[in-house]
Amino acid sequence: MTYGPKPWLQRHWDIRAATNFILGGTGAGLLVAIALAPQAAPGWRPMLALGLALIAVGLGAVWLEIGRKLRALHVFFNPWTSWMTRESFTALLVFALGATVLALDRPWTAQATGLAALGFVFCQGRILHASKGIPAWRAAGITPLIMATGLAEGSGLYLVITAGGGAVRALFALFALALVARALAWQRYRAKLGRGAPLNALEASAKWLLNVGTFAPLALLLAGLVAPQIAPAASMLAGAAALATGWHFKLALVTRAAHNQGFSLPRLPVRGSR
Amino acid sequence: MTRWVMIADLRRCVGCQTCTAACKHTNATPPEVQWRRVLDMEVGEYPQVKRVFVPVGCMHCADPPCMHVCPSTATRQRADGIVTIDYDLCIGCAYCAVACPYQARYKTDRPTFAYGEPMPSEAQRFDARRFGVATKCTFCSDRVDAGLAQGLTPGIDPEATPACVNSCIAKALHFGDVEDPDSNVSELLAENQFFRMHEELGTEPGFYYLWDRAP
Amino acid sequence: MKVKTYCYQCVAGPDLLTVKVENGVATEVEPNFASESVHPGGGKVCVKAYGLVQKLYNPHRVRSPMKRTNPKKGRNEDPRFVPISWDEALDTIAARLKETRARGLLDESGYPRVAASFGGGGTPQSYMGTFPAFLAAWGPMDMGFGSGQGVKCYHSEHLYGEFWHRGFTVSADTPSCNYNISCGANIEASGGVAGVWRHANARERGMKRVQVEPHLSVTGACSAEWVPIKPKTDPAFLFALVHSMLHEQPRERLDLAFLVGRTSAPYLVGPNGYYLRDPATKKPLLWDTRSNAAVPFDTPQAAPALEGGPYTAAAVEVGPDHEVLAQGELAGETAFSKLVAHVRPYTPEWAQGVSDVPAATMRRIADEYLSHAQVGATVEIDGALLPLRPVAVTLGKTVTNGWGGFECCWARTVLASLVGALEVPGGILGTTVRLNKPLGERLKSVRPGSDGFMAYPFNPTDREHWSAKPNIRNAYRSMVPLAADGPWSQALGPTHFSWMFLDQTPPGLPRVTLPEVWILYRTNPAISFWDTDRVGEQMARFPFTVAFTYTRDETNHFADILLPDAVDLESLQLIRVGGSKFIEQFWDHEGFALRQPAVAPQGEARDFSDIATELARRVGLLEKYNAAINRGVAGVALKTDRWDFSLDTGKAHDAGEIWDAVCRAASAELTAGAESQGLDWWREHGLRTKAFSRRDWYLYPTFVELGLRFELPYQERLLRVGKELERRLHEHDIHWWDTQLTEYQALPAWKDFPGLWETSLRSMGGQPDDYPYWLITSRSMQYAWGGNVGMQLIKEVADNIAGHKGVILNAQTAERLGLAEGDLVEIATPKASVRAHAVLRQGIRPDTLLLLGQFDHWETPFAKDFDMPSMNKLVPMSLALTDATGSGADVVRVSLRRAA
Question: What is the pLDDT of residues B67-102, one digit of tens each?
């Protein structure tokens, strides 16, 4: 196959890489949610384990994609400039802290884990931002967007699992804020997308993100507030919607909107005399 | 200091792909991997159309995004500007490939051959180290180094010069030290107007495109 | 280790390369850097040469001789080839040849029983070793079953170019040219290394090239200006340029001295269209302004009038067959005046209506041409002072063949004459000869003829010598006087006639018979000719075909025996290089280059020379074969009065012995007998040359020396030849060539050339409105030629250039038809259709479609999976579309729609 000169869809990072952003972001968001109100839900320990597991599965998916699997540890070699290295170290930190939480049963370690998880999803955003070859990834505003959706998905997942029970006000606030932040982050990101970014592939997902993934869940939360008997169902639905649209968006971002900028000529050659 | 750069004279290039093929010969790249290739670009609308042939490949940037993102330090930059890949360090994550604004990097997961089974010429040059890892144009650094060791001048003496430059039938490609004000490339840049690809991204590419004589 | 060799896969060569061999394996091709100082392309080789390693190791190669075991031949018949030994293969062939020879070399129709076809415009000769000696030893052979040569090549240019200025191929003097009007000459794709190198240098120097072509080719891309002309209307464009220079520009801008002194412009033309001749000497007359009288053209101190007639003179006007058409006080106009009158109607406005080129553009181009011509300027070349006229009009395929080819070649050469840019520095040059001898020395092929012009070996048209019994099936000797009768003439006749007449020989010619033995090498007519389905059907009827084979292909599919010859990197031969050859290969040096094995042949492939020797021996022609080699058929005469390296004619010599002798002779020739290095030396060095004077690029000094004039603008001789041919044909009741006879005009007129293709459509049962698109083709530099369709590397790199994956069409046309990039479309004539994927581009006229190259393979491994059609399936072999010199053109009117 021959490519170019018009932009074409990169195929180096496929659904396996997308899985890392999808599950990693959600897992980190879940850990942040738990950190806000640790021990608030009865099943918080398995939830924490789930958060760690999601991050691990995401990284495992990436591992499936690399060409030299047995050299995976080389990923730690460049903390000075590489956000992928930093993401890996942060993941280690998250696992370490998470393990201590599960072992020691101390609340502060849960908060530390949440902080580390925030750092993890921040690294994920920076990974994309440093990808100068893909206009849709390197755009300003990608990091807040990735972080916001991670938080929205994670807290959404929390709501799904707990059906709203065990979710204290702080958590609903986190969820609602994350939804709004996500919507605003999308607007800002979209406004700053320069030429060469394939808006079409993103616009479709973004529509879902805004309607089903922002307005609908917010409406459901409101409904739950007004009619407490439907609150558990509403919470679950809201969380699921936020989660699903976030995953859909990230999948599109990594596998369908990931066109490079091709090649361009600012000047044309003069062939002989004019 | 030294900085090796390449020049493509867009007024001369005819898109013949001789350099594309020569690179494949010298570097024994597998099918579909083209460290050097030439694009066929059309600009405008009928009948005001222009068609340009554009050699591309790794630009050996002064500020290479690939190097910054590489988690394993496999991608490095020599003092003379050539951006290198240590195949033994590379984990094949392809982060550099998505970080490169020039689409210059390749990763081949499995060995493939021109006709299915390897021909003797392919078997002879097969290098297992290059599968599952990132590969790209090296500015034929082994030729450059070997040539320098013998007192030859890269870009002037064929044995010390990248294969693509040697092969060009239009004399469109040039290679030399841009930090040397008397070098072939410095002269060409002084005498002509030029641009670099995607300059607004701040990568400081080491690949110049000539488009007209200097006024 | 680097082995030196040459590449001559296409006529733009030869070029020099080295092949790296590591542990007995060929790996890398590189330019032969040592040849940089003598090679006009900086010592480089083009992309195709890099495919030679894959060509060598291609697993699809036929690795041993094969014989057919399925007696039935057909596209859908599996030949069931089985491997046989070389002995069995050669014995079978020899037996067949001997049996055929015993019955006489010619059959009952007078045609040679044995036919041989070679492709590549003569380049196979640089790969077939000593096989030409076998052909010479055999005797008459029919080499006119074409695969496109003589028909789809630069045909009109070959014949008329060689007639007017010994220009079998005509090139701009690129190193010195400043303004080049190129009508479809795709020099960046077809000019090879030398062409590309020189034109790149020319661009840097500031040469302006205007590319006049229906699509924005690779060459158009690299030009200063693109003029999207309607297909087959180039004569109108060129005529309008002539008109503009003669009717809209002052005479002073022309090279009047050249016209008056070096052309037939001042010759007086009589009332019947023939020259006014001196009654006593029969020399053409011109009007001497000094003595105010008509005098023979070669009168010393005459000051001929260029125009201003009519002039009256006591003269005689001689027409065809020496008939005196008029005598006494006859009024005559100068040829120049006739030219001026002739082009009066061809205004730029008229031409705009025909060609779609704006009149203002044509006026500007004419003006630019004159501005760049530097009439009166001189330059010193190798110690001689020559005129400098740095303007050139070059022509490409589909312009130089088929109807309109004559008109374009004539107009182009007239344009050169108007400013004296003919065969001088900067102008147009003939680069080589193929119809006049000696082949290798263009200037020496110039001999004074009558009327002050060069002699030309026309095939006779007089009653005594014209014959309705052609020597070969395509009847060139009878039908095409300009094709001459040299070794190359067979392939320069109407080579499609051999195929067409098999089904029905037209009245007046002996019945065209099947060849009893057909030998072929480096040619694939079932792909590269027209009406390819039908060509395959005809091949299936040939009783015995021997195919020198690389891989299975669409033509050897119909063969009886396959012989694997050692390919480019496996075989041995010495060839001449340099001097002045095809396309842009005119060097400042001349000499020889060696092709030598980089590795041992794969499988049981054998060196062609060894095969030739063995065949000669088994057929009983060994003595004659060796004698031919000694005579020089292998490239150099082995015996001269100064050296003798001749072979013992009674022995069978192997390739090494033969080429060692040739090498010695070559060394001796280069050093005037002082040295005689053999094969060992040549293996090490690969190349040896001596100086070739740049003065010898130009015919002009020879003309001055011999006192000759260029036979332009008025084609009195062609008019006469045409009339005589008409009489001979009619005397033999042959009337099917009458339309072609109309091409024999002294001053060619515009005919509705595009209309001819509409007429052709109607004869196929279609209406032009239903087939509104012009389908054309263009060269793919990466593939053409050399069997490169089977190379994975070539396909891979070629795919970077637009058009290799489908049919190129205008993006607005596509939008109008609702077609998107990649959509499958059907392109059809009333008789046939092909399917292709749409490739949308801006650089093509909205009414034009383009299918690159010649694909549509169904047998050739790798290529048969390309999913790329060919226009060859759609183009009929048509007498109506054949011009007087026997050529046709790769153009056809088609319909376009989304494929169902």
Answer: 999 999 999 999 999 999 999 999 999 999 999 999
What is the value of pTM for the model shown? 0.96
Unique residue bearing structure tokens 């002739």: C342
Q: What is the DSSP letter of B110?
A: S
Peptide bond before residue A5 is cis, with ω within 30 degrees of 0: yes
What mean pLDDT do residues C750-760 have? 96
C885 touches C482 (CB < 8 A): yes
Interface of A with C in 72-91 (CB under 8 A): none
The count of domains in chain A is 1
How is chain A split among helix, strand and coil, in percent rounded to 5? 75, 0, 25
Q: Does the CB of A5 have a partner CB in chain C at under 8 Å?
A: no
Q: Map out the domains of chain B as residue ranges.
A: 4-210
Tell me, yes or no, if B170 comes closer than 8 A to chain A by beta carbon.
no
Does residue A101 belong to any structural domain of this protein?
yes
The set of chains that have 3 or more CB pairs under 8 A with B is A, C
Report d(CA A194, CA C80) in Å as an integer: 62
Interface test with B, best of A82, A88, A138, A264 (most B CBs within 10 A): A82
* Chain B residues within 8 A of A273 when measuring between CB atoms: none
CA distances from C204 to B183, C41, C182 (A): 20, 15, 18
C-alpha–C-alpha distance, residues A56 and A72, integer Å: 14
User: Within a domain: residue A8?
Assistant: no
Which residues, in sequence order, are CB contacts of C512 under 8 Å at separation 6+? C109, C111, C473, C498, C501, C502, C505
Q: C15-22 and C25-31 as β-strands: parallel, antiparallel, unpaired?
A: antiparallel
The reply to whether CATH 3.30.930.10 applies to domain B4-210 is no
Cα A155 to Cα A51: distance, rounded to the nearest angstrom: 11
Q: What is the pLDDT of residue C60?
A: 98
Nearest residue on chain A to C223, alpha-carbon basis: A271
Rounded CA gap, C700 and C420, in Å? 10
Q: Which of A75, A132, A269 minimises the CB distance to B101?
A: A132
CA distance A271 to chain C (A): 5
Is the model's pLDDT at C24 over the cut of 60? yes
Spell out which residues of chain C touch residue B125, defining contact as CB-CB under 8 Å.
27
B-chain CB neighbours of C188 within 8 Å are: 14, 16
What's the complex ipTM?
0.98
Write the CB contacts of A210 (distance below 8 Å, at least 6 apart in sequence). A183, A186
Query: Residues 47..76 of A with a Cβ closer than 8 Å to B: which?
Result: 62, 65-68, 71-72, 74-76
Nearest CB to B17: which of C53, C782, C842?
C782
Q: In this structure, is residue A85 part of a structural domain?
A: yes
Which chain C residue lies closest to A5 (C-alpha atoms)?
C800
Q: Is residue A178 part of a domain?
A: yes
Radius of gyration of chain B (CA): 17
Q: Is B95 touching A (CB cutoff 8 A)?
A: yes
Cα gap C672→C674, rounded to integer Å: 6
Q: How many CB pairs under 8 A join A and C?
A: 22
Nearest residue in A to B108, CA atom:
A67
Report pLDDT digits (tens) over B55-68. 999 999 999 999 99
Tell whether omega for the bond before C40 is within 30 degrees of 0, i.e. cis.
no
| Inter-chain touch C26–B34, beta carbons under 8 Å | no
d(CA C151, CA C494): 6
CATH number (domain holding residue A36): 1.20.1630.10
* Domain around A221: 15-255
Q: Test A272 with C206 for CB contact under 8 angstroms.
A: yes
- pLDDT number for residue A43: 79
Report the pLDDT value the prediction gives residue A195, as an integer from 0 to 100.
60
User: Chain A within 8 Å of B107 (Cβ-Cβ)?
Assistant: yes
